[in-house]
From TrEMBL:
Its EC number is 5.6.2.2. It comes from Anopheles farauti. This is DNA topoisomerase (ATP-hydrolyzing). GO terms for molecular function: ATP binding; DNA binding; DNA topoisomerase type II (double strand cut, ATP-hydrolyzing) activity; metal ion binding. Gene3D superfamilies: 3.40.1360.10, Winged helix-like DNA-binding domain superfamily/Winged helix DNA-binding domain. Keywords: DNA-binding, Isomerase, Magnesium, Metal-binding, Topoisomerase.
Length: 250
């Protein structure tokens, strides 16, 4: 059985019972305008849910049946990422969330409830790893660039809680590995194959293509954390200052 490109797996009696119970819960969520996480949905139906994965599979079947994404039925993942910086989120319920806190603020589960964003920042810095996000805050990035940068985790950016007109990759570049003499880790065969595939894609041209070609030549990768081996404050005082000079009056 299929609905568009979605497919529903063969259903046993227990799974069908679970889906009916979950549909009743989803109806209540939609009727009352409330939300819950996938994990909460699992705990609400423990008597039928054998494992979290069993519940999530049943939820996938429900989404296929309704031809809807989970967020459209008010069910969300447990984490939406973190934001830190001079930004205030205005929610439809009247609540305001000040993101200018020491350790960052969680993105609301229901990002559609954000009706307005107020900020003074000149750019948004997307950080892939939560550990690096926290380290940048510990090192005082907001003091170094006051009222200038909104820091977000990659998960928060993917949720599209904000509109970013343009996006630029600022590193860590393969050329940085060579320039700074960073200690790298050899690339595995699958990673080298992926690089070959990326080089052939139409959007990897100019600077990005040159970096990919160098990465293939070096056959070595390095993590952004390796910059801390140069100096504990190197990312804040040197690396970011150099990378952001094109965008900020530093």
């Amino acid at each position: 059985m299929s609905q568009g490109e979605r497919s529903i797996k063969p259903i046993d009696t227990r799974r069908l019972q679970l889906m009916v119970r979950m549909l009743a819960t989803i109806y209540q969520l939609l009727a009352t305008g409330t939300v819950c996480t996938k994990r909460e949905l699992y705990y609400l139906h423990l008597e039928l849910a054998q494992t979290p994965g069993y519940t999530y599979a049943a939820l996938d079947d429900i989404c296929a049946l309704l031809d809807a994404d989970t967020w459209e039925i008010n069910v969300f993942n447990t984490s939406k990422g973190l934001i830190a910086g001079p930004m205030v989120l205005m929610l439809s319920c009247g609540q305001t969330i000040d993101c200018n806190t020491r350790w960052g603020t969680s993105v609301p589960l229901d990002v559609a409830s954000v009706i307005d964003i107020r900020l003074t920042a000149k750019l948004v810095l997307v950080v892939e790893k939560d550990t690096v996000f926290k380290r940048l805050l510990e090192d005082g990035i907001q003091d170094k660039f006051p009222n200038t940068i909104v820091l977000v985790t990659a998960m928060a950016y993917q949720q599209r809680a904000m509109a970013v007109p343009t996006m630029r990759w600022i590193g860590l570049f393969p050329s940085d590995i060579e320039l700074l003499g960073l200690q790298g880790v050899p690339l595995c065969e699958n990673e080298l194959k992926r690089i070959e595939q990326m080089i052939k894609r139409p959007y990897t041209e100019g600077h990005i293509q040159r970096e990919l070609l160098l990465l293939r030549q070096l056959a070595t990768k390095a993590e952004i954390e390796s910059l801390y081996n140069i100096a504990s404050d190197f990312i804040i005082t040197v690396y970011l200052k150099s990378k952001l000079k094109e965008y900020l009056p530093i």
